[in-house]
C-alpha cells in the first residue's frame, strides 16, 4: 500500500466516525482561512521561491479563496504609464482576470501614490522612484526581483491592457 | 449602479454539473436577450485555489455574461443563488444588491451520506432577508430535494415546479449506432468522490462487473471505486480522469449508461444522466431516479442491472427505441426554453432578440475573444486538413486541392510546414504546429506535443472529417482517434515510395476510415511499398485546373518578366533537405548558353540561395498560376512540381532530388523520360544540360502532347467527392 493509499484509507476511516464529517465541514474552512496558521505552515514547509515568485511570502489580495493562493506566481504589473484617471479601470480589469484564472498574485508598480486602487483588492503596491538614472533603474528592478522573487512582468500602456496582454494573463491559468 | 436582467450568484469554480448547469442557464438567458451578471463567492466546497470553470470563462469572454466584482451596488430583475452553502459561508462578500426576486436553487442534497446537514434553510432564509430585504423562493432540482426541504420545516416558499437542469440537446447530439460488439460497453461519468460510487463491493460489481462480460468505461476517475473493491481495477475497465475527455465524445463510445451511487447519498438531479440521454445513450438507473426522468430511462435494482444491459445489447430495436425516446425527452422536458419560461414567469422579464453588442460586449473580458455576433455563420461541416512538414509544398498543395473542391465542407488547415501561409493566400483558415525538426527535438519528445496540439484543434474545430496528408502518420493519431472518436479520418498518401522503405507505415492504414492514394503519372513504374497496398486510387492531384492559369502575357506581366523572348524556369527550391546552390548555378549557366532568360523560384522553405543580378527571382504561390510564362523548366521531380509542369504544358528537364527520404523522384523522372514526356538527368552540369535544353525547345510540344493524351484529369475532384460521400454515409 502506497503512502497515498494509506492516507486516503485513514481519511475514509476518519469520516466514518460519528460527528467528524459535520465538524470537518465547519472547522476546515476556518483553518484554511486562518492567517496565523497559514503563516505557521509557510515557515514549516515553504523553503524555496521559484523563478516566477511561487513561494514568495506575499498576499494574493482579497478576491481569491482556497488553499494554495500563497503559492501562485507573482506578477509585477507596471502601471507607471497609465494616466491617473485610468488606473482604477485597469486594476478592475486585472482583478477580474485574476479571479477568473486564479493564476497570479499581482504587485502594482505605481509612479504616484494612488494606493487606493491597490487597497480595493488588497494588492501590494510599489511606488516607483521618479526620474532615476539608468543605473538607479537597474538597481530598482533588481531590488524588486529580489523582493518578490519573480521575473514575470506585465507593462501596461497608456491605453490600458491590450488584447495581447489580456491573452497573456489568461494564459497563465493552470487549466487546460 | 450596475444593472443586469438576471444576477447569478454562485461559486463559479465548481468543476462538475453545477457549473455546467449554470453555463446552460447563462446561455439560455443570453439567447432570450437578457443581460446576465455574475457575482462570485468563494464558497467552502472548493478547497484549492482554482480559476473559474472554463465554460463560464468562455461565456464571460464572449459577452454572454458579465463579471461583477467590487462593492459597487447592483440592480437585477431576478437573482439566482445556486448552491445554498455558497451563501451560507460567503454572504459577507456580496455588494449591495437591489432585486425584485431571489431564487435559491438547491442543486445538491441537503443531507450528507453521514446524515449531517449541508446547510440550514432557516439560516439561508435569514441571510437572504438581511442582504436582499425579501424572502427567497426555494427551487429544488427534483422531488427528492423538495422532500428534504419540506421535512426541514420552517417557513420556506417553494416554487411549484422543480428547477430541472436544462441542456442544449442539439449540441449533445452524437451519431450513435446500436450496439454491434461482442459484449456490451457500459459507461459512467462523474467526479471521483466516494458518494458517487456504490459503497458496497457486491453492489458496485453488480453495476460494473469485473468478469469481462461487459466492458466498463469510466470518465472521471475510479480511485473511489478501487477503494471499495479493495484491489486493482479489473482489466475489462477503461478509466479516464475527470476532464481528460470531452463527455460528448466519451458518450459516443458506449452502448448503455449505467449510473449507480452510494445509496445513502441523494443525487439531486443527475446532470450526467441528462447528458447521456441527450446523446442518445440508453440509461439504466436506480429506481429512485424515476421521479426525475420518468419513462426516459430504464430502472433496475442492482441484481437486475446486467439483465437490462444484456437485453439492450441483444435487441437492436429496443435499444433504438429507448435511445430516441431519451433524446426526445431531453429536447422536450429539459430544453433551454424551459429556463426562459420560468425566468419570465418569476420575474416578468420579456424575452428579447439577443443583442450582439450592448452593455455586455463593451465589457473588458468580452473583448478577449469577440462577441457571439462575430462568430462565423458558416454552418457547413468542418473539414480539418492536417499536413506533415515534408520537404516541399506537396502535402499542403494536395490538401488545398481537396479543400477547394470539397465545397460541402468548411476547411481548416493545420500544417507542420513553414510554408503554411500559402493556405491563407487561398483564403482558408490555418494554423501552424512546429514539427520535431523545426524544434530541434527528438521525435519521441515531440509526439506528446503533436497529440496535445492536434487534440486542442479537434476540440475547438469539431471537424466532421480529418484528412492527414503525409507518408508517416504520427503515433499520436491513434490516441487522438480514441479520445476524439467523432470525426472520420482519411489518410491521403501519395505512392512512389522508394523500394523497400517504410513498409511498416502501411499498417497505420488501420487508424483511418479510408485511404486515398493520389495518383502519379508514373504510377505504372511504381515498385514501392504502396504499389500493392489497398487504397482508393484517384488521378494525379494538382491544386489548379488548366483554365485557372494566367495567359503567357498576363503571367509575365504580373511577375515583372520581359514580355518577349524565351524564359526558363529553374525550380529546385521545393525543399530544404539539400543544398540546391550548385544545381541552380549550373542550370543558370546552361540557360545563358542557349540564350534563355532565367527565372528562379525562391521558396520560403529554402530562402537563402544567393543568385546573380541578371536572374529573375520569383516566389509566387501557387506557382502554377504563372506557369505559362515559361518556355522550358529545369526542376526537381517532387510530386507537386512534376504533375503541374507536365499537366500544364511546360517542357521540362527533371533533376531528381538525390537525398529524398522516401519519395522516389528518380524513378518518377526516369519513367517520364522513358515515355517521352520530359527529359531527366541525375544532376545539372553546364555542358550536359545545354543539349537537353535545346531538345526541349525544339521538341517540347510533342512531349507535352503525349502527356495531355494520357492525363485522366485532376484527381482532386474525385477526392472531394469521396470525402463528401464518406461524410454523407456517416450522417
Automatic annotation (TrEMBL), chain A:
Q: Which domain of life is it from?
A: Bacteria
* Protein's name in the database: Uncharacterized protein
From TrEMBL, chain B:
Q: Which Pfam families match?
A: Glyco_tran_28_C (PF04101)
Q: Name one GO molecular function term.
A: hexosyltransferase activity
UniProt-listed InterPro entries:
Glyco_trans_28_C (IPR007235)
**Which segments constitute the Glycosyl transferase family 28 C-terminal domain?**
623-682
Annotated region described as Disordered, given as residue ranges: 349-375
Would you tell me the protein name for this molecule?
A: Antifreeze protein, type I
Q: What species is this protein from?
A: Microlunatus endophyticus
Classification from the root reads: Bacteria, Bacillati, Actinomycetota, Actinomycetes, Propionibacteriales
Amino acid at each position: 500500500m502506497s503512502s497515498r493509499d494509506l492516507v486516503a484509507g485513514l481519511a475514509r476511516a476518519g469520516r466514518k466516525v460519528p460527528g467528524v464529517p459535520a465538524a470537518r465541514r465547519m472547522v476546515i474552512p476556518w483553518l484554511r482561512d486562518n492567517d496565523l496558521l497559514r503563516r505557521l505552515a509557510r515557515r514549516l514547509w515553504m523553503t524555496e521561491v521559484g523563478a516566477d515568485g511561487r513561494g514568495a511570502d506575499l498576499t494574493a489580495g482579497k478576491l481569491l479563496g482556497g488553499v494554495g493562493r500563497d503559492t501562485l506566481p507573482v506578477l509585477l504589473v507596471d502601471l507607471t504609464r497609465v494616466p491617473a484617471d485610468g488606473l482604477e479601470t485597469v486594476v478592475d480589469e486585472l482583478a477580474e482576470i485574476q479571479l477568473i484564472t486564479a493564476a497570479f498574485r499581482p504587485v502594482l508598480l505605481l509612479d504616484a501614490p494612488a494606493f487606493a486602487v491597490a487597497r480595493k483588492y488588497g494588492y501590494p503596491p510599489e511606488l516607483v522612484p521618479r526620474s532615476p538614472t539608468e543605473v538607479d533603474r537597474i538597481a530598482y528592478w533588481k531590488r524588486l526581483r529580489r523582493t518578490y522573487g519573480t521575473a514575470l512582468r506585465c507593462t501596461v500602456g497608456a491605453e490600458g491592457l491590450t488584447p495581447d496582454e489580456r491573452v497573456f494573463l489568461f494564459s497563465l491559468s493552470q487549466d487546460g | 449602479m450596475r444593472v443586469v436582467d438576471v444576477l447569478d450568484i454562485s461559486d463559479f469554480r465548481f468543476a462538475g454539473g453545477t457549473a455546467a448547469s449554470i453555463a446552460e442557464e447563462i446561455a439560455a438567458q443570453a439567447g432570450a436577450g437578457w443581460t446576465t451578471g455574475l457575482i462570485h463567492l468563494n464558497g467552502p466546497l472548493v478547497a484549492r485555489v482554482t480559476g473559474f470553470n472554463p465554460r463560464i470563462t468562455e461565456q464571460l469572454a464572449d459577452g454572454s455574461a458579465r463579471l461583477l466584482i467590487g462593492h459597487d451596488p447592483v440592480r437585477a430583475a431576478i437573482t439566482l443563488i445556486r448552491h445554498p452553502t455558497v451563501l451560507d459561508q460567503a454572504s459577507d462578500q456580496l455588494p449591495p444588491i437591489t432585486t425584485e426576486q431571489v431564487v435559491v436553487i438547491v442543486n445538491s442534497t441537503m443531507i450528507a451520506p453521514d446524515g449531517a446537514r449541508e446547510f440550514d434553510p432557516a439560516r439561508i432564509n435569514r441571510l437572504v432577508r438581511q442582504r436582499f430585504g425579501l424572502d427567497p423562493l426555494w427551487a429544488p432540482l427534483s422531488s427528492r430535494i423538495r422532500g428534504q426541504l419540506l421535512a426541514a420545516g420552517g417557513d420556506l416558499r417553494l416554487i411549484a415546479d422543480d428547477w430541472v437542469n436544462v441542456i442544449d440537446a442539439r449540441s449533445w447530439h452524437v451519431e450513435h449506432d446500436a450496439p454491434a460488439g461482442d459484449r456490451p460497453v457500459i459507461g459512467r461519468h462523474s467526479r471521483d468522490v466516494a458518494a458517487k460510487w456504490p459503497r458496497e463491493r457486491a453492489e458496485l460489481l453488480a453495476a460494473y462487473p469485473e468478469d469481462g462480460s461487459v466492458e466498463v468505461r469510466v470518465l472521471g476517475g475510479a480511485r473511489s471505486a478501487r477503494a471499495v473493491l479493495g484491489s486493482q481495477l479489473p482489466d475489462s475497465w477503461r478509466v479516464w480522469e475527470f476532464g481528460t475527455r470531452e463527455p460528448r465524445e466519451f458518450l459516443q463510445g458506449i452502448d448503455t449508461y449505467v449510473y449507480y451511487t452510494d445509496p445513502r447519498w441523494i443525487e439531486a438531479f443527475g446532470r450526467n444522466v441528462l447528458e447521456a440521454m441527450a446523446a442518445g445513450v440508453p440509461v439504466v438507473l436506480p429506481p429512485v431516479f424515476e421521479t426525475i426522468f420518468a419513462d426516459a430511462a430504464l430502472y433496475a435494482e442492482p441484481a437486475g442491472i446486467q439483465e437490462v444491459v444484456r437485453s439492450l445489447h441483444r435487441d437492436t430495436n429496443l435499444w433504438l427505441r429507448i435511445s430516441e425516446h431519451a433524446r426526445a425527452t431531453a429536447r422536450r422536458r429539459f430544453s433551454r426554453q424551459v429556463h426562459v419560461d420560468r425566468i419570465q414567469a418569476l420575474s416578468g422579464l420579456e424575452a428579447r432578440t439577443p443583442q450582439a453588442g450592448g452593455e455586455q460586449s463593451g465589457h473588458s473580458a468580452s473583448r478577449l475573444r469577440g462577441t457571439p455576433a462575430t462568430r462565423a455563420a458558416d454552418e457547413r461541416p468542418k473539414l480539418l486538413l492536417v499536413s506533415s512538414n515534408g520537404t516541399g509544398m506537396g502535402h499542403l498543395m494536395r490538401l488545398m486541392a481537396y479543400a477547394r473542391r470539397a465545397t460541402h465542407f468548411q476547411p481548416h488547415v493545420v500544417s507542420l510546414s513553414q510554408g503554411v501561409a500559402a493556405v491563407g493566400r487561398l483564403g482558408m483558415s490555418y494554423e501552424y504546429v512546429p514539427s520535431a525538426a523545426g524544434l530541434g527535438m527528438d521525435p519521441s519528445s515531440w509526439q506528446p506535443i503533436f497529440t496535445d496540439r492536434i487534440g486542442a484543434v479537434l476540440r475547438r474545430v469539431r471537424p466532421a472529417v480529418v484528412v492527414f496528408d503525409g507518408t508517416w502518420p504520427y503515433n499520436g493519431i491513434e490516441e487522438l482517434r480514441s479520445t476524439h472518436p467523432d470525426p472520420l479520418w482519411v489518410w491521403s498518401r501519395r505512392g512512389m515510395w522508394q523500394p523497400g522503405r517504410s513498409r511498416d507505415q502501411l499498417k497505420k492504414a488501420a487508424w483511418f476510415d479510408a485511404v486515398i492514394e493520389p495518383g502519379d503519372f508514373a504510377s505504372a513504374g511504381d515498385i514501392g511499398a504502396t504499389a500493392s497496398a489497398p487504397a482508393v486510387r484517384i488521378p494525379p492531384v494538382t491544386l489548379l485546373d488548366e483554365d485557372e492559369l494566367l495567359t503567357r502575357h498576363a503571367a509575365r506581366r504580373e511577375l515583372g518578366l520581359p514580355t518577349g523572348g524565351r524564359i526558363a524556369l529553374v525550380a529546385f527550391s521545393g525543399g530544404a533537405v539539400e543544398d540546391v546552390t550548385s544545381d541552380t548555378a549550373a542550370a543558370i549557366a546552361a540557360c545563358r548558353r542557349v540564350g534563355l532568360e532565367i527565372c528562379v523560384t525562391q521558396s520560403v522553405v529554402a530562402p537563402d540561395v544567393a543568385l546573380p543580378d541578371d536572374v529573375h527571382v520569383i516566389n509566387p504561390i501557387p506557382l502554377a498560376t504563372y506557369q505559362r510564362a515559361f518556355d522550358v523548366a529545369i526542376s526537381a521531380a517532387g510530386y507537386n512540381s512534376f504533375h503541374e509542369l507536365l499537366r500544364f504544358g511546360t517542357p521540362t528537364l527533371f533533376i531528381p532530388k538525390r537525398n529524398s527520404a522516401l519519395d522516389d523522384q528518380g524513378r518518377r523522372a526516369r519513367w517520364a523520360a522513358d515515355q517521352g514526356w520530359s527529359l531527366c538527368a541525375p544532376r545539372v552540369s553546364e555542358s550536359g544540360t545545354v543539349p537537353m535544353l535545346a531538345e526541349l525547345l525544339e521538341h517540347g510540344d510533342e512531349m507535352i502532347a503525349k502527356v495531355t493524351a494520357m492525363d485522366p484529369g485532376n484527381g482532386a475532384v474525385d477526392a472531394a467527392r469521396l470525402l463528401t460521400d464518406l461524410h454523407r454515409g456517416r450522417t
